[in-house]
Design a protein that fits this description.
Strands 9, 12, 13, 14, 15, 16, 17 and 18 form an 8-stranded mixed sheet that branches. The protein has a 6-stranded parallel sheet with strand order 2-5-1-6-7-8, with helices on both faces. Helices cover about 35% and strands about 20% of the residues.
Length: about 400
Amino acid sequence: MRMVHRPSPAVSFVGRHNSGKTTLLVKVIAALVSRGLNIGTVKHHGHPDFDIDYPGKDSFRHREAGSCDTVIVSPTRMARVTALTQEPSCDEVVASMPDHDLVIVEGYRQSGLPVIEVIRWANERDRAAAEEFCETGSVRGAVPCAVVTDVESVANAASARGMRAFSLEDIEGIADYLVNTFARPAVTVAIQAGGESRRMGQSKATVPFLEKPLLARIISRVAPAADELIVTTNEPERLGFVDELDLQCPVRLVTDAYEERGALKGMATAFEAARNPVVAIVACDMIFASASLIVEEARMLHEGGFDAVVPYNKFGYEPFHAVYRKDACLAASRIAIDQGKVRARDFFESINLGLFQRDDLRRAVPEGGCFINANTPDELARIEKSIEEDGDR
């Protein structure tokens, strides 16, 4: 299984010294972790000579002797102390911390991240900041997306400008806001394996490919992008082999919700069965299906606020290697089905659709080929032979 890292979204909490940022964040982080989120944190330190090690410790002695990059590893923790010639940007730091549901940054006001301003009246330095915010809606040139404060005038000024305002004690409210606005939404990857294929002469899910069922290959390729894996099928009794696959999350088989099969109805089945807010749909015959593409599509969906992100190339839409927002797309697909429509793209006009264009595809999957599918035994054999001769993608 290929290693695929998911970029971590991030948000910054800013304020003056003694504004209570750290005390607040400790409570917020605990609330987020209690909800099952994987949280990373970054603390911007203003002093260049800070240290996290103690004189006399072995790792300290390594660095004292001249090591410029020291890693301390135990069975449960790892720390790294690296000498820098230039301070990295906040973007670079966050980019080095993938696979978190959210990274909370303390400081870095000018990082370009969404900023949440903390203003506490008991801190004398915050009073000037409160006046500045009430007058301009910003502090030191940075316009926050929300404020956390016990100053009534600041809360009122924020609300008047359409910003969220929270009290210092509203930890659950702040956590709700972070989850709903910034945290990476969990992704269900749904593989469409409808059953018999007339041109293939047998079920594509179970047809042998490189000595394994084709479905097993597709599952292993897309699993790194999944918080949940489901397979929609009308032959669950023939797919028991998926339980034997070595995966980080189990595969759930979902029987088609409609008696009559079809592309649109198969997608509606997946939307209805998914337990997560974002659903990636992948066809079981896409031999080079890409977890990296799913990750980048999901990021575009989240950052752009789209209901779906679908690749678009010279052949048109590629709806069976795309991501969808469950609630919006389930409702839209049901309406399309009730109107007698059958194509996967028949509900696209009624949702906020984002297109994953050619340049996006090149960045996400430089090797290409992720939309290649096999419809006949001859096509499958040719692809299998090319992999044996030239290697896999």
